[in-house]
């Protein structure tokens, strides 16, 4: 109390005066109700009449001892009375009810005097009804009621006593009413058992608490400009608040009454008419007055949750200011708990009394408090994501908001340090995962910036960038921690993030090995949607990585699956896909929206498409050139690319290229015609490459590939028209060194793609062309088909016979081993193949239409 | 050449005793300063019970100084332990070597145990003495004795872990005594044991770090890695070894092991593939007279694929040679790598004996690939490719033409000093002829399936078209 006064006095003398006036009026306790309640009643009436200006009452009374509060009671009593009397105002509905109750009380008292139990019974019924109404309005039960209950019980007991001794009995109806009354009182007492107990133990404190509550509740309507929630820290709030006590009556919060205030707020939480902003404000003040760690922890716990409650609707996000203060408070909470190991916040605790101040001394050891920091952090992070989802990504607001990631990251790191210190593995795993999610997809510079803020802060987690020097090492250590932790979901996500990070760092081989060895592609269908999205992102990033490293075939194969679905955006959670034939329910739509990634995490789909189409071009165009018959032409490696190419072919007139696709299509045509320079220029003029790190090296790499593939295409296309072709001419035409040309041609001859041979002395390629007759062609086709049929047949048999096991004994060596090989190697040996099967992110939906593609892939790979 | 030396990589996967031959080889090869090698040998020997050897090494390092006295102390200790253990083991051995007992022993180990217990009062602990004694003998270098005792122990014991350990011990003893046939047998049984995944801690006793907490899969990977390394001893010394090496290492599970945990073994895989070229070619022409699996026949193709895949992890001249030859078709680079590879092979502990054979086969591979691609080849040029002088080259080429199936197609034009290769293009009928084999396949699968079963057929092994 004294502290509070000091604060108030500092800020404003006026207010301190009114403060003084008020305090006693509250502190004045009625004489202890012993045998009769009369004096108490009248005191109460007076105080209530003058004090409860309008708003609701409290039902919560704390038992906190008010030793300090009793201090100046007597001295100030009169003053306050005088001051309060003139304050008669129009009564609000609530007050009216209160008055009514008091009137009833009076009638009862009178009836008691004349021993008229009938009247008492009637009045009591009325009172009960009124109290019931109070309940319905979610307003606290007034002290008055409790006191009446206690008094009535006493009177009834004494009356019954007297009855027994008395010679002259009451009349029948009166006696009946008395017994009925006894029952009712019993019931009522039971309902309000705790209050009554507290009241009888210490009426003064009880009343004072009650008044505190009333006063506080009424304060805002008494004219404080409703504070902008969360805008100011708790301290300003207190200052400001004390200045505006209106009508000589100011609310105060003291560390003594903190628990019941807290309880009041918590009771009101979630109820219909609760003003959330108001509650937050109250709690903010409470934080300011909280004296002990225990109080601070309790209030902070309540405050943070009510901040998160502020915005109940699912669609909108939490206001930034609110979020920021929540973040600060989480920080505060963590630092309190971290600095004092005697307090521990746990999700499961033994029941404890909410009203008692607890300390390590009273608890004999660690004070366990009900709550969960990790869920706050989760929530904080989620809210951050949600706000990013809702803010327009192209505005400055988004950028401003993004800057908050630093503090969030700091908070997460703090929590990690805390959990690390207290070695709580379960929340530590979650918090490490959160941290990982903030850095895995970011380029080095951003991670460095994030880590720099952590370095500055006082609390540092066990793993930091400074310690590991590179981001990869940091990510590695975070992931390794998660691998070791038992949680399989976290492990999966950590694994994917790790792979993503490797891919981002252009470490294709490691990333690919990890992806294949994790065998995630087999189980990802059963994972939750968020993990599937992460998986898709990882696979896509892996494809991009392969593209950047110049592994065109791998890039094409990796990106293939996701592009055949034509729902790239949806699969990467970067946009909602409009389905043509089915309408999404609002819930689905909402869930879908909820899943979207914030804009800064997006993988640019246009870039992705460019990479995919270019690699498809490099794979597909030579292939197209190499095949002759119509039959084979239908087998496409990259269907989306083939479709686009066919479409471009049909066009009568082609203008200069505009979009990325146009560029690539025209480049493909140029490549088909052997004009590799034009192709190169078209590809290099695609603007989207600038988004790719090391754009220039990628362009150079592409140019080289285009040269090689151009040479191949040229050879395939024009071989029938030459009988010999000089290597030096080829080398000049495609600006490739002679050795490279020889190498490419040799490779084609070796692989029997080109029926030719080299004449070393002449430096020429000699073509040996065989024209197939129609019947020969057909014979070949039928041979292929029969072989395919046999293959299918065998597969069917395998399924029927229950796996390959049965076959092993009967077959002689070769065949069986070959088959076993292909099966076993799918896991790791033949890695790219594994990847190909992999990218089916969205379970069944995704995998549709993949089945018929698989064989052709495998065949293609096998060469 | 020291940078291509694998000893340092391999030794961690070997038993202490197995490392001795490697170090001895290094000393001869003089890749590293002799003092360092001796120091390493000494450090190695210190941990064993071979005190005489250790002290002699010590004298070599510090000539003139007296060997630490702890050796003498340890020696007396070891001798007494030896006597004690021998007594214990002898008791068991006496019983087992009794012809009556030998006859009475059956397949079932539990029954045997019971029998021994009933009739000769032999307990499991006593049998374990065999193991202990075997192990002790191994530790001071009496490998033959160790092999014997461990064998007897394994016949009797039912303890899985110890049995495994005995397996490894026996294998090591056999390798060190140089009984390659026995070692090969041992290797195969051990491989079966590992592949059958019986025990979760296969490796536990074999490796010093008994990591029983490891997952079974990981333990299996570890033991396979070890097996791969140990088997190198056997495979490069046994006459049939190279083929068997290909057979084993190219099987999916071991290929995966190599790719995952020890890519450097690819050198030996590549070398073996090159070395067994003749075997592969011979088989192909002899129409699969010997039951060589397709794995071995297409070894080079397979190996090249793996090398390409693992290039980012491991490459040395041997693997690069194959890569340049079969992936890049850069004959000049291949030739360069071959020169390097020749040295590497010469210095390698396992491969050094096969240096000439390796070179020979590698040349064959080069000329084969070269001839397949080219129509007219300048003999001088080809000789250069093969690191041969023109005369030698000509002789070589003539031999080549005579030996291989190019005989019909290739002719030497001495006037122009070129070889002309006239390879008729593939007749298109060959493709269609493949269908012939279908009938055979269908008939065979018809036999395989019970009479009531549906008529099915089987894939046709693509007839290798020459």
From TrEMBL, chain A:
UniProt GO molecular function: RNA binding; translation initiation factor activity; translation initiation factor binding
GO BP, one annotated term: formation of cytoplasmic translation initiation complex
Top-level taxon: Eukaryota
Keyword annotations of the record: Cytoplasm, Initiation factor, Protein biosynthesis
Alphabetized SUPFAM superfamilies for the sequence: Winged helix' DNA-binding domain
Location (main, coarse): cytoplasm
Chain positions covered by the region annotation Disordered: 1-88, 799-863
Pfam families named in the record: eIF-3c_N, EIF3CL_C, PCI
Location(s) in or outside the cell: Cytoplasm
Compositionally biased region (Polar residues): 849-863
Family: Belongs to the eIF-3 subunit C family.
Function: Component of the eukaryotic translation initiation factor 3 (eIF-3) complex, which is involved in protein synthesis of a specialized repertoire of mRNAs and, together with other initiation factors, stimulates binding of mRNA and methionyl-tRNAi to the 40S ribosome. The eIF-3 complex specifically targets and initiates translation of a subset of mRNAs involved in cell proliferation.
Name of the featured protein: Eukaryotic translation initiation factor 3 subunit C
Taxonomic source organism: Hebeloma cylindrosporum
TrEMBL record, chain B:
A GO MF label: translation initiation factor activity
Pfam families, A to Z: eIF3_N, PCI
GO CC terms in record: eukaryotic 43S preinitiation complex; eukaryotic 48S preinitiation complex; eukaryotic translation initiation factor 3 complex, eIF3e
Extent of the signal sequence: none
Biological process annotations from GO: formation of cytoplasmic translation initiation complex
Family that this chain belongs to: Belongs to the eIF-3 subunit E family.
HAMAP family assigned to the protein according to its UniProt record, in alphabetical order: eIF3e
Function: Component of the eukaryotic translation initiation factor 3 (eIF-3) complex, which is involved in protein synthesis of a specialized repertoire of mRNAs and, together with other initiation factors, stimulates binding of mRNA and methionyl-tRNAi to the 40S ribosome. The eIF-3 complex specifically targets and initiates translation of a subset of mRNAs involved in cell proliferation.
Protein name: Eukaryotic translation initiation factor 3 subunit E
Origin species: Hebeloma cylindrosporum
Encoding gene, per UniProt annotation: INT6
């Amino acid at each position: 109390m004294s502290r509070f006064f000091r604060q108030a006095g500092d800020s404003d003398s006026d207010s301190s005066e009114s403060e003084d006036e008020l305090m006693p009026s509250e502190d004045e306790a009625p004489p202890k109700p012993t045998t009769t309640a009369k004096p108490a009643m009248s005191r109460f009436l007076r105080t209530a009449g003058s004090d409860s200006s309008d708003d609701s009452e409290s039902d919560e009374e704390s038992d906190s001892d008010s030793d300090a509060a009793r201090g100046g009671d007597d001295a100030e009593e009169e003053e306050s009375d005088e001051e309060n009397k003139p304050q008669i105002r129009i009564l609000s509905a609530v007050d009216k009810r209160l008055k009514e109750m008091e009137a009833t009380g009076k009638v009862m008292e009178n009836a008691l005097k004349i021993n008229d139990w009938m009247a008492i019974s009637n009045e009591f019924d009325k009172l009960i009804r009124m109290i019931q109404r109070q309940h319905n309005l979610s307003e606290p039960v007034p002290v008055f009621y409790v006191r009446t209950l206690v008094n009535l019980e006493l009177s009834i007991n004494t009356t019954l006593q007297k009855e027994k001794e008395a010679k002259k009995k009451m009349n029948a109806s009166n006696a009946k009413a008395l017994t009925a009354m006894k029952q009712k009182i019993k019931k009522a007492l039971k309902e309000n058992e705790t209050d009554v107990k507290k009241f009888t133990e210490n009426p003064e404190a009880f009343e004072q608490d009650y008044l505190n509550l009333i006063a506080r509740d009424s304060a805002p309507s008494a004219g404080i400009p409703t504070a902008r929630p969360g805008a100011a820290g708790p301290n300003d709030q207190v200052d400001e608040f004390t200045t505006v006590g209106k009508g000589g009556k100011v609310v105060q919060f003291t560390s003594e009454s903190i628990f019941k205030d807290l309880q009041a707020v918590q009771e009101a939480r979630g109820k219909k008419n609760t003003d959330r902003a108001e509650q937050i404000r109250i709690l903010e003040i409470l934080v300011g007055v909280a004296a002990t760690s225990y109080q601070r922890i309790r209030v902070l716990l309540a405050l943070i949750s009510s901040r998160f409650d502020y915005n109940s609707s699912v669609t909108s996000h939490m206001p930034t200011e609110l979020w920021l203060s929540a973040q600060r408070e989480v920080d505060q909470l963590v630092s309190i708990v971290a600095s004092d190991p005697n307090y521990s916040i746990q999700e499961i605790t033994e029941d404890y009394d909410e009203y008692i101040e607890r300390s390590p001394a009273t608890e004999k050891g660690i004070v366990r408090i009900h709550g969960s920091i990790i869920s706050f952090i989760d929530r904080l992070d989620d809210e951050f994501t949600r706000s990013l989802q809702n803010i327009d990504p192209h505005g400055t607001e988004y950028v401003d908001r993004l800057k908050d990631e630093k503090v969030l990251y700091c908070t997460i790191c703090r929590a990690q340090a805390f959990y690390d210190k207290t070695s709580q593995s379960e929340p530590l795993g979650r918090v490490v995962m959160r941290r990982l999610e903030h850095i895995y997809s970011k380029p080095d510079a951003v991670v460095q910036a994030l880590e720099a803020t952590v370095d500055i802060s006082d609390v540092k987690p066990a793993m930091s960038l400074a310690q590991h020097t590179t981001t990869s090492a940091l990510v590695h250590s975070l992931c390794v921690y998660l691998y070791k932790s038992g949680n399989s979901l976290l492990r999966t996500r950590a694994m994917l993030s790790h792979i993503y990070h490797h891919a981002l760092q252009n470490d294709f081989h490691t990333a690919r090995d990890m992806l294949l060895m994790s065998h995630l592609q087999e189980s990802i269908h059963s994972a939750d949607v968020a993990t599937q999205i992460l998986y898709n992102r990882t696979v896509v990033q892996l494809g991009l990585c392969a593209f950047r490293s110049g592994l065109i075939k791998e890039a094409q194969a990796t990106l293939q699956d996701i592009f055949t679905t034509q729902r790239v955006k949806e699969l990467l959670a970067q946009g909602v896909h409009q389905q043509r034939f089915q309408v999404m329910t609002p819930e689905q739509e909402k869930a879908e929206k909820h899943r979207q990634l914030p804009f800064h995490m997006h993988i640019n789909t246009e870039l992705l498409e460019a990479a995919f189409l270019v690699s498809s071009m490099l794979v597909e165009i030579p292939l197209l050139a190499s095949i002759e018959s119509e039959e084979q032409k239908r087998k496409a490696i990259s269907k989306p690319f083939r479709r686009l190419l066919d479409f471009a072919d049909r066009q009568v007139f082609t203008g200069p290229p505009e979009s990325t696709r146009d560029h690539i299509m025209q480049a493909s045509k140029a490549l088909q015609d052997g004009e590799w320079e034009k192709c190169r220029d078209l590809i290099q003029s695609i603007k989207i490459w600038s988004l790719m790190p090391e754009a220039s090296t990628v362009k150079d790499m592409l140019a080289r590939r285009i040269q090689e593939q151009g040479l191949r295409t040229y050879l395939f296309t024009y071989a029938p028209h030459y009988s010999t072709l000089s290597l030096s001419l080829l080398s000049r035409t495609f600006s490739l060194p002679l050795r490279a040309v020889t190498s490419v041609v040799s490779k084609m001859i070796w692989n029997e793609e080109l029926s030719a041979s080299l004449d070393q002395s002449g430096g020429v390629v000699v073509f040996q062309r065989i024209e197939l007759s129609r019947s020969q062609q057909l014979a070949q086709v039928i041979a292929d088909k029969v072989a395919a049929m046999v293959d299918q047949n065998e597969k069917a048999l395998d399924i029927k016979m229950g796996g390959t096991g049965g076959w092993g004994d009967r077959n002689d060596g070769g065949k069986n081993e070959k088959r076993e090989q292909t099966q076993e190697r799918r896991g790791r040996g033949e890695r790219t193949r594994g990847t190909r099967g992999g990218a089916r992110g969205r379970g069944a939906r995704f995998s549709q239409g993949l089945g018929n593609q698989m064989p052709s892939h495998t065949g293609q790979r096998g060469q | 050449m020291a940078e291509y030396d694998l000893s340092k990589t391999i030794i961690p996967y070997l038993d202490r005793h197995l490392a001795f031959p490697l170090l001895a080889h290094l000393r001869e090869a003089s890749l590293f300063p002799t003092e360092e090698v001796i120091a390493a040998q000494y450090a190695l020997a210190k941990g064993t019970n071979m005190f005489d050897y250790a002290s002699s090494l010590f004298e070599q390092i510090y000539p003139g100084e007296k060997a630490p006295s702890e050796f003498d102390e340890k020696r007396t200790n070891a001798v007494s332990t030896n006597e004690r253990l021998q007594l214990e083991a002898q008791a068991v051995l006496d019983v087992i070597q009794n012809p009556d007992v030998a006859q009475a022993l059956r397949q079932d180990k539990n029954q045997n145990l019971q029998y021994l217990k009933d009739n000769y009062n032999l307990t499991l602990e006593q049998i374990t003495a065999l193991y202990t004694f075997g192990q002790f003998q191994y530790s001071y270098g009496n490998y033959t004795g160790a092999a014997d005792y461990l064998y007897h122990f394994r016949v009797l014991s039912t303890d899985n872990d110890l049995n495994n350990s005995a397996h490894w011990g026996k294998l090591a003893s056999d390798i060190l005594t140089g009984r390659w046939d026995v070692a090969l047998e041992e290797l195969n049984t051990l491989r079966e044991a590992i592949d059958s995944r019986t025990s979760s801690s296969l490796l536990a006793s074999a490796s010093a770090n008994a990591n029983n907490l490891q997952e079974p899969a990981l333990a299996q990977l570890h033991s396979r890695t070890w097996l791969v390394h140990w088997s190198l001893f056997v495979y490069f010394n046994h006459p049939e070894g190279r083929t068997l090496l290909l057979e084993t290492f190219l099987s999916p599970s071991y290929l995966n092991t190599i790719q995952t945990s020890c890519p450097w073994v690819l050198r030996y895989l590549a070398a073996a593939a090159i070395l067994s070229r003749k075997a592969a070619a011979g088989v192909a022409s002899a129409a699969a007279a010997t039951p060589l699996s397709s794995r071995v026949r297409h070894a080079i193709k397979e190996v090249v694929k793996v090398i390409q895949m693992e290039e980012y992890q491991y490459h040395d001249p041997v693997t690069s040679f194959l890569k340049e030859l079969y992936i890049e078709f850069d004959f000049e680079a291949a030739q360069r790598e071959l020169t390097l590879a020749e040295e590497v092979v010469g210095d390698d502990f396992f491969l050094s004996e096969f240096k000439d054979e390796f070179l020979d086969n590698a040349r064959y591979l080069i000329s084969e690939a070269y001839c397949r691609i080219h129509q007219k080849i300048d003999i001088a040029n080809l000789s250069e490719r093969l690191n041969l002088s023109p005369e030698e080259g000509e002789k070589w080429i003539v031999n080549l033409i005579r030996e291989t199936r190019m005989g019909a197609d290739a002719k030497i034009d001495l006037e122009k000093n070129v070889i002309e290769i006239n390879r008729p293009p593939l007749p298109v009928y060959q493709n269609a002829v493949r269908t012939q084999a279908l009938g055979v396949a269908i008939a065979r699968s018809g036999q395989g399936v019970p009479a009531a079963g549906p008529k099915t057929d089987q894939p046709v092994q693509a007839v290798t078209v020459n």
